[in-house]
Amino acid sequence: MKFHSREIKSFFYSQYFSDGLRISLGILLPSLVLAQFNKFDEGIILSLGALCVSVVDIPGTVMHKRNAMAVCNLCIFLVAIATGFARLNVFTLGTEIAILSFLFSMFTVYGTRAASVGTASLLMMIFMIDKAIEPDKIIPYALIVTAGGMWYMLFSIVFFIIRPYRATQQALGESILDVVKFLRIKADFYLADTDIDENYRKLVSQQIQVSQHQDVVRELLFKSRVMVKESTNASRVLLLTFVDLVDLYEQILATHYDYSQVRERFGKTGRLDEIARILQHQSIELENIGYAVLTNKRYNHSHDFNAELEFLKRKIDEPTVNEQGTSNLVLKKILINLRDLNGSIHNIFNYYNSRSSKTLLENPEDVEYSKFVTHQDYAPQIFFDNLSFSSATFKHAFRVSLVCIIGFILARTIAVSHHSYWVLLTIIVVLKPGFSLSKQRNYQRLIGTICGGVIGVIVLSFIHDKTAQFVFFIIFMLGTYSFTRLNYVVSVIFMTPYVLILFKFLGVGHLSLLEERVTDTIIGSTIAFIATYLIFPTWEFEQIQQTLRDVIYANTNYLVKIAETITGRSVSTTDYKLARKDIYVKSANLSATFERMTSEPKSKQKQIKEIHKFVVLSHILSSYLANLASGIKEKNLHKTQPENLKLIRKSITVLNDSTKKLGGKAIDFTLEKTNPAEDKKELSADEALLKEQLGFVNKISYDIAKVTDNILS
């Protein structure tokens, strides 16, 4: 019960609910205020403009939000005028729909924020299609709509100016909670009843969530001059907490072993259950810190794991663990990992609870944070370079344009109703570049519309009091915009009764309206679903080679940085962390691609088993490299034996060969030739451990090479 209570509270403190509240207020206020002056119709038009611009209000810095919403306002103004005049003739309207659907769908080449501007513009076009406006009133109407968009832009910016750190704090808290889930999945590997393969699937799936949230935090932190340049306690707490969180995530990744072998050797001793228990307790401690960050409260009761770790050490050292000559070296390594995790959790706790400005203003590492975020290029040449059928974005835009024309024709012939534009609206929302995303969104839209329709009819049938209906309207509206990014099907379930109650207030019957909405949604979804099969379909297997190549390249680059450190070369903290970040991002992209691939038709899931092996092996390699890097950093191994250098050289060569087979470029890296006489030198304990770790890396590199060959065969 306590867990569920915390989850509910976390939602109301989260960025999702804050966004829902901000969007709902921004859309609703113009109508409510103008209704008091008997200008409700003008208020509705202002709210329509605010609704379109709210689509662009996605996580990011205030500067990027402002720029995107300003461009969006310009677009909806021009689209409102163009559609207002085009709708006077069915042929000009059809032509405009085809052109604008293609044009704004091409905005995807400029990233997520630009794509949202395109979506908002298409929404404006769709809402204008059935507006019976006289020619002389089209421009005034467009001006009012744009004024609503400008109102929302100013309202949203003021929201962030008042509390400049809150969005980053919320994103950071959510990121910590994602890492908590990742840690708990890791802990399950030590339990005898956990299916290892299934747990790997959970792990790579959660890795996607961790990476996505970390990208959001990076953008909010490192693209904001306020966060990076200012010397306030608030900004430094957030920055240093995130840096330590990423280090902690690396340590969790580094705790990788051959779990089936570990279970076989130590399963009966009870030590693995103890390890899993400590990991679960550490996840609870980290969750408490994450909850404190999310809710902007202090967590003053840090748990000390030293006693539990000391107890585990004594158990590991007991003779019963070493019976029959079984080495307990693996358990000792796990103990070291647990101690490192404990230290990182303690550091995060100290940062976030420190009241000393001196501690917070010190930055122990010279890191160029601006390099950790991608900077979108908006050059026109990018748009024109993608105007060919070799571009997935071009195919998607062409598909959207063609399907919108088909939807428009059907809406005017079959789905003749007062709100037939819902057919086009469904197509725009459902149709995504990839088959799996379109399929998922299709399913969510249909289920959400039907379930939400039932809820809406129940509310309107049994609750006749206008005040009570308005309360439900506000709840449904908040739910719609709060769950848009969190859970789309829930968002649509809230959206349908929200729309039904809105139209009820506008004097439109709810039962006939529900029938129209469900019918138009089914028509739009059906057209979109068929189109993903027949019109330039995009299958994940056709593009996965690039993803595989990127992952191998990122791992090779990380190994090269480690090798440079081992051979005594200077590697900056920034370069090391950039290589590490690249692995996280590319691995998450691979996991996401694999997940999408599993939802495609069986006939299109080519080499699915081999790709799954690649995903797991890639995760294992990244974990070994993280383990290796952590050990080298701690033990200051800046010059190693020739025997170890040979293993490094072999691993890099094998990984480079795999990259080249996938059509990529190899990373140049040379090691000085070794003296055969030096190979006979006895290795120290640290060198022997390093050799064992490099041996693991070498083995996994060869395994990846074999799987790559199988995928390409």
Structure in words:
With 713 residues, the protein is mainly α. It has four domains: 1-162, no CATH class; 168-363, Methane Monooxygenase Hydroxylase, Chain G, domain 1; 390-538, no CATH class; 540-672 and 683-712, Methane Monooxygenase Hydroxylase, Chain G, domain 1 (Up-down Bundle), CATH 1.20.58. Helix content is 76%, strand content 0%. It has 28 helices and no strands. The protein has helices spanning 2-13, 15-35, 40-54, 62-86, 90-105, 112-129, 138-162, 166-188, 196-222, 225-229, 233-254, 259-266, 271-295, 306-317, 329-353, 357-361, 380-385, 392-413, 421-430, 435-462, 466-482, 488-505, 510-534, 540-566, 573-598, 608-635, 642-661, 685-712. Helix 2 packs across helix 7 and helix 26 (608-635) runs antiparallel to helix 28 (685-712). Residues 321-325 and 356-361 have low confidence and may be disordered.
Notable traits:
713 residues, mainly alpha, 4 domains, 28 helices, 0% strand
CATH architecture of the largest domain: Up-down Bundle
Compute the average pLDDT: 85
| Alpha-beta content class | mainly alpha
By CATH, the topology of the largest domain is Methane Monooxygenase Hydroxylase, Chain G, domain 1
Q: Roughly how much helix do the residues carry, as a percent range?
A: over 70%
| Percent in strands | under 5%
- Record field, number of beta strands: 0
Helices, by number, come to 28
Order of helices and strands: HHHHHHHHHHHHHHHHHHHHHHHHHHHH
Number of domains: 4
Based on CA inertia axes, which overall geometry fits? globular
Oligomerization status of the protein chains: single chain
| Low confidence ranges | 321-325, 356-361
CATH class placement of the largest domain? Mainly Alpha
What is the CA–CA distance across the termini? 52 Å
**CA radius of gyration:** 28 Å
The profile of the biggest β sheet is: none
